[in-house]
């Protein structure tokens, strides 16, 4: 092996020497093998804002600027711009039907402006801004190809040198490269750059590449800023097309030429990785007056290492011209395919467990361009069992791809748009240019596995007129990744995969008809019907969207250019409704409901045979579009107090035990049953393994246990392990139990709560009067009686309650139900002594909440608290209750708007709650602290 390598190197040297001798005179300039040079342009620049667009006409590119800014940065970051106000030119939709409500009037003044729909920048500016500095070009750069490279510009950049306009760029996704060769001769020069952050092309004002809803519509230059000098014949682009199965890579090289003369020269290459493996070779290439191309086929050897999420092996390829110009790229050997309804990487099945990243960077207002920031995001995602991120209507900087390559993570990038397509408007052509720039800049990264035009198109393109040829084009141009027309819709013929919303628990507009709100809870259902009806992989679009009450403790974390003024507004509204003291309780209770909903969402996906994966919206909060705290992490990727990574990763991970249970509530006359399964998409199949199970009491005592027969665990899901069957007649009831399942030989466990109630319930109701009308309640109260008013059907208001939390948020969904976020109660209160519960909604509450109503308690004394709160959304923040007690007119009154009427013999949880309420009322503990008038208690039913 050493002899072969030595012979190859000697041969390569001989060829290089011979070719150099033969082609030396043909080279456009006499060159050396010196390294290409660069000048770092970070530092102090002059700045001048141009809100009236007079800069070009007045020749600002030839003037000296008085104000300065330190670049890289945004001008907002440097304190330039205007204070946000009612007439600010926001980029992003505003729901005026919400904004015009009277509760926001105090926040529309000049001295107290606070917009509740997204994070508020300290400064806002939309228009042209000019940046200028002097540079000195060294003598050694004479005759070189010189580029100005701006890594992240927002948005359009126009460049002048010494007053002469040279170049315009408008990519949102990739670095701007301006050819300044003709102007930057040795000596001093003035570079002026106009940056314009208006809607240069209509990519959509809600697109996350530009919108104030997320990153903010900033103006500036971030990331690397530099001048690069290269040989007059230079390597313009290198793209690597791996074939992992054959352990080969095809390399396509584009050459640039500014000499005006044709020529040829030797192109050499070298491949290495961190194991010090080296391969090398060379060949003669030719170019014409405009440049040239070359193609290499590199045999990586049978022992070449492949790239995937478990083995992120990378190779470095250096391409060099004998003129001295060179280019280095990193690539990975991986084959990505659609096999039936699932993806494979290197012939191994993959299940995408993804989240969205929507350009949320609260401190800077623009995306990070350093690798460590992205490494943190990806590592946190992996800790939570994920292997995938979709970049919603934008494309991240190269640092994200570098971090994902190194960590082993799959990315879906999009061509910066969420808009109307297929009309022939400029955006149609611009999207092709933008996507090509993405492929050129990031195409070699193995982590870049999926691409789409953008999000949820409108216009003729929604039906595929634009997107069908789009998909066809990119499948031909760049087969290294999976292509789909758009995220959300449509299902275009020719898609490598569909990125659609159908396989998820709650659809836009589903209201109370969604799976969680319309059907009693079980863990048997999956999305196989939809998956089986589609011939290509389906990745669920924006699964989840379950909100949690805002965490007002986060406000102090916003120390950068964006402030959580929206949270300040919602905190004020809660205080205005006399519930400021309940903010943390609402966060915790709604947070636990959020986790319950997400667990049901993720497990349904993992149960579905043939499913390709899901993309959550999202692991982190979304601060815009009305404010959507949908994450179990905040906008800084920090944990929230109601769940930790260990709990989440039990049901969202590489290997997850699953249990198909027909229901969550049982009686002692029944036998508990569950069918156990495993979802496993690891690096390799597992050896024969058992699923060990236990049933534990709320106190942690094991009341039953067992294990399934051992079996091989392949790379798949819906792997049947065995069944659990336990007679419940001997178990204490009413009680909460937990089924815990662990897969032996793997670090994989999961658990599910269920509740067991007695078949018959005894009540001591001799002195409790149960009524269904205000008149009957008033009559009984005058006699000093104990009255239970079942008022569910009496409550008249427009609040619609479901079991789940808000979907996204009611401001953005036009007040779609459910309007509330679960319940809050004190489980130690004696009214719950015979109804085991925690402080928040859980599955035993589903039957009580389904088809129920909330009472509005706004007219009651400020300190009045219900026994069961219904947590209102943060836009309305009304004091709501579902179980209320008070002294009224000499008697003791309990009002319930829970669903406690009808078929109690078939509804064990409702029957048990009814018994617990009645027995509490019959006990000495029933001593309401608050007193109400008949008029007050009547109002809460008809608010």
Automatic annotation (TrEMBL):
Coiled coil: none annotated. GO terms for molecular function: hydrolase activity. Residues 1-26 form the signal peptide. Keywords: Glycosidase, Hydrolase, Signal. It holds the Pfam family Glyco_hydro_2_C. Residues 235-334 form the Glycoside hydrolase family 2 immunoglobulin-like beta-sandwich domain. Belongs to the glycosyl hydrolase 2 family. This is Glycoside hydrolase family 2 TIM barrel-domain containing protein.
């Amino acid at each position: 092996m050493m002899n072969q390598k030595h012979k190859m190197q000697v041969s390569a040297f001989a060829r290089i020497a011979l070719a150099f001798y033969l082609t030396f005179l043909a080279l456009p300039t006499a060159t050396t093998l010196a390294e290409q040079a660069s000048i770092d342009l970070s530092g102090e620049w002059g700045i001048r804002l141009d809100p009236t667009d007079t800069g070009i006409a007045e020749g600002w590119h030839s003037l000296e600027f008085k104000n300065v800014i330190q670049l890289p940065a945004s001008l907002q970051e440097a304190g330039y711009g205007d204070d946000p106000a009612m007439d600010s030119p926001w980029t992003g939709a505003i729901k005026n039907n919400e904004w015009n409500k009277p509760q926001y009037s105090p926040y529309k003044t000049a001295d107290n402006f606070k917009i509740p729909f997204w994070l508020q920048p300290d400064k806002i500016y939309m228009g042209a801004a000019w940046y200028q500095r002097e540079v000195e070009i060294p003598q050694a750069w004479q005759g070189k190809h010189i580029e100005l490279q701006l890594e992240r510009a927002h948005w359009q950049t126009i460049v002048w040198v010494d007053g002469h306009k040279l170049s315009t760029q408008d990519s949102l996704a990739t670095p701007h490269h301006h050819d300044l060769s003709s102007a930057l001769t040795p000596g001093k020069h003035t570079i002026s750059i106009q940056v314009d952050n208006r809607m240069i092309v209509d990519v959509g004002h809600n697109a996350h590449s530009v919108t104030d809803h997320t990153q903010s519509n900033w103006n500036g230059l971030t990331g690397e800023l530099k001048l690069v000098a290269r040989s007059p014949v230079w390597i313009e682009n290198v793209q690597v097309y791996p074939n992992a199965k054959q352990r080969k890579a095809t390399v396509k090289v584009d050459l640039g030429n500014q000499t005006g003369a044709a020529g040829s020269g030797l192109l050499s290459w070298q491949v290495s990785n961190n194991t010090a493996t080296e391969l090398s070779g060379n060949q003669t290439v030719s170019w014409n007056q405009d440049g040239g191309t070359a193609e290499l086929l590199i045999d990586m050897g049978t022992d070449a290492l492949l790239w995937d999420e478990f083995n992120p092996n990378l190779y470095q390829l250096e391409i060099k011209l004998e003129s001295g110009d060179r280019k280095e790229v990193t690539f990975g050997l991986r084959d990505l395919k659609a096999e039936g309804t699932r993806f494979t990487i290197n012939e191994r099945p993959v299940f995408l467990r993804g989240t969205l990243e929507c350009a949320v960077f609260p401190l800077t207002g623009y995306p990070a361009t350093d690798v460590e920031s992205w490494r943190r995001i990806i590592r946190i995602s992996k800790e939570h069992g994920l292997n995938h991120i979709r970049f919603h209507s934008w494309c991240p900087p190269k640092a994200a791809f570098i971090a994902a390559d190194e960590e082993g993570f799959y990315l879906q990038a999009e061509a910066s748009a969420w808009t109307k397509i297929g009309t022939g408007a400029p955006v149609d052509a611009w999207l092709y240019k933008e996507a090509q720039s993405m492929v050129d800049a990031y195409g070699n990264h193995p982590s870049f596995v999926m691409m789409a035009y953008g999000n949820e198109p409108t216009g003729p393109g929604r039906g595929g007129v634009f997107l069908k040829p789009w998909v066809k084009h990119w499948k031909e141009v760049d087969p290294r990744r999976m292509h789909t027309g758009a995220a959300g819709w449509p299902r275009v013929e020719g898609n490598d995969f569909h990125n659609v919303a159908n396989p998820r628990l709650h659809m836009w507009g589903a209201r109370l008809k969604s799976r969680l709100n319309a059907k009693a809870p079980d863990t048997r259902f999956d999305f196989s019907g939809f998956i089986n009806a589609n011939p290509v992989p389906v990745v669920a679009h924006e699964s989840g969207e379950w909100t949690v009450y805002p965490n007002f403790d986060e406000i102090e974390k916003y120390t950068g250019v964006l402030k959580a003024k929206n949270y300040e507004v919602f905190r004020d509204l809660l205080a205005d409704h006399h519930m400021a003291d309940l903010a943390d309780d609402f966060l915790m209770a709604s947070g636990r409901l959020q986790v319950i909903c997400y667990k049901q969402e993720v497990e349904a996906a993992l149960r579905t045979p043939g499913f390709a994966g899901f993309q959550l919206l999202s692991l982190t909060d979304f601060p815009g579009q009305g404010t959507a705290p949908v994450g179990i992490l905040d906008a800084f990727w920090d944990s929230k107090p109601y769940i930790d990574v260990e709990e989440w990763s039990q049901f969202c991970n590489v290997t997850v035990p699953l249990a198909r249970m027909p229901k969550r509530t049982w009686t002692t006359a029944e036998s508990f049953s569950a069918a156990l399964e495993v979802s496993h998409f690891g690096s390799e199949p597992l050896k024969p393994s058992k699923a060990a199970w236990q049933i534990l009491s709320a106190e942690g005592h094991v009341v039953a246990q067992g294990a399934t027969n051992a079996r091989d665990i392949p790379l798949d899901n819906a792997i049947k392990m065995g069944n659990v069957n336990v007679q419940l007649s001997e178990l204490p009831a009413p009680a909460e139990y937990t089924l815990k399942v662990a897969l032996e030989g793997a670090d994989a466990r999961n658990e599910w709560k269920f509740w067991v109630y007695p078949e018959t319930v005894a009540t001591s109701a001799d002195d409790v009067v149960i009524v269904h009308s205000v008149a009957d309640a008033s009559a009984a109260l005058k006699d000093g009686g104990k009255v239970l008013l079942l008022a569910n059907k009496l409550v008249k208001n427009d609040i619609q309650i479901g079991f789940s939390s808000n979907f996204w948020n009611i401001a953005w969904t036009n007040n779609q139900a459910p309007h509330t976020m679960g319940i809050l109660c004190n489980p130690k209160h004696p009214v719950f002594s015979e109804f085991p519960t925690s402080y928040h909604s859980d599955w035993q509450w589903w039957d009580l909440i389904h088809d129920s109503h909330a009472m509005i308690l706004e007219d009651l004394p400020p300190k009045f608290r219900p026994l069961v709160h219904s947590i209102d959304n943060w836009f309305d923040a009304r004091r709501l209750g579902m179980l209320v007690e008070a002294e009224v007119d000499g008697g003791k009154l309990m009002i319930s708007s829970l669903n406690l009427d009808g078929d109690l013999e078939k509804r064990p949880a409702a029957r048990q709650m009814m018994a617990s309420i009645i027995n509490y009322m019959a006990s000495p503990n029933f001593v309401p602290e608050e007193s109400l008038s008949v008029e007050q208690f009547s109002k809460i039913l008809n608010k």
